[in-house]
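hiii so um. not sure if this is the right channel but i have a protein structure encoded as tokens and i wanna go backwards to a sequence. like what aa goes where. can anyone help
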């Protein structure tokens, strides 16, 4: 019975310590780029030059060594971002990067959110998104997260390619189908 009480005490203490370390959450929202109005569709795809895990559509975090290491970042951790396509009532389409993290204090959570590494590139009508985000070397895992919010103005036409349909919302987006932002929603084109 004594061993049971000691084990229970240790479990409760560990849970309280973990809750203290994760009690605050901070989020940073940053406008990355605007997308110019175009008569040609935008193409959103995942960077194939980066390692993509086999379970890409089944998990949020990967805690194992990855084949291609990234200097300065923790190489046994990768996180899968969430890509959200939204209709916007503005006349300007834009891409926004939202990073978030938990921490023992607001300041710590903010520092951890700022330290998240993620890249995307816009080349003409092609938007290339990294399939994974990283955290700095020796950084503790604190439920860091990345959301890419793609707000599309009325009439914007686009396609999603490669693995992007696995992490994109709305979930009905299919590879190599054409979509349009119209009448306050994202619709598949006939």
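sure thing!! here u go:
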């Amino acid at each position: 019975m004594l061993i049971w009480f000691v084990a229970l005490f240790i479990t409760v203490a560990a849970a309280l310590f973990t809750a203290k370390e994760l009690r605050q959450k901070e989020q940073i929202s940053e406008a990355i780029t605007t997308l110019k109005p175009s008569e040609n569709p935008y193409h959103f795809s995942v960077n194939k030059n980066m390692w993509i895990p086999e379970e890409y559509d089944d998990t949020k975090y990967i805690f194992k060594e990855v084949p291609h290491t990234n200097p300065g970042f923790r190489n046994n951790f990768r996180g899968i971002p969430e890509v959200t396509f939204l209709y916007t009532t503005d006349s300007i389409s834009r891409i926004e990067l939202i990073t978030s993290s938990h921490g023992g204090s607001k300041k710590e959570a903010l520092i951890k959110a700022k330290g998240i590494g993620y890249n995307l590139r816009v080349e003409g009508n092609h938007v290339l998104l990294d399939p994974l985000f990283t955290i700095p070397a020796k950084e503790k895992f604190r439920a860091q997260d990345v959301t890419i919010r793609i707000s599309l103005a009325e009439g914007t036409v686009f396609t999603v390619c490669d693995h992007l349909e696995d992490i994109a919302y709305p979930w009905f987006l299919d590879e190599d189908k054409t979509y349009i932002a119209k009448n306050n929603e994202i619709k598949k084109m006939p």
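oh and The mean pLDDT is 87.
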